[in-house]
Amino acid sequence: KLINKTKRLLEIPKEYKVVGNIANLLEIKDPFTFLRMAELVKETIPETFFLWVGEGGQQQKQIEKIAHRMGLEGSFKITGFIPHDNIPGILAVFDVFVNTSKIEVVPLSLLEAQAAEKPIVSSEFLGVEDVISDGKTGFTFPIGNAEEAANLVIKLLLNENEASLMGNNALKYFQSKRSSPATMAKMYSDVYEDLV
User: Fold this and answer.
1) Please, which contacts does 58-66 make with residues 24 or more away whose CB atoms are closer than 8 Å?
2) What is the pLDDT of residues 70-82, one digit of tens each?
3) pTM of this structure
4) N or C: which end of the chain has fewer CB within 10 A?
5) How far apart, in Å, do the first and last CA atoms of the chain sit?
């Protein structure tokens, strides 16, 4: 089974829930809020693993030290670069996708999470409402508010039915709004026009 194989490769205990993000470790992606959220979730649900999929760069050692101080060693991993072809396999192991970004231009990882039928907990970056219908296809929290993020993640991890329904709604939303090439092209065009 793909999920068990991926968990084995990433050294995630088979029975653990997985909370993850896909992003490079940049300051605007706010990995520190992700870590604080992880610490709070772990207090309530110890058998949870936190996965940051992306390149660490200069911040990686610092973040790993903080994770160690928080008692997350063995429950937190930064994967480093993962080829895009492998992302669906990684997303398959996620129980909840958590986005902590302060800014997003084109939130491709959120769209990929929706396409993979994953419930999303995301920061309220400018334009988040274009991607997430709060309470239906995901939950949103104020930027930097790790406590609220943790509460929402815990709610989904403890309620598999709600998480499953939310993931299903996310997929339907993605299919209706994003999946056609014309729709995606228009989205990129709109973003480009905003930037110019």
Assistant:
1) 59/25, 59/26, 59/27, 59/31, 60/25, 63/25, 63/31, 63/32, 63/35, 66/32, 66/35
2) 999 999 999 999 9
3) 0.90
4) C
5) 46
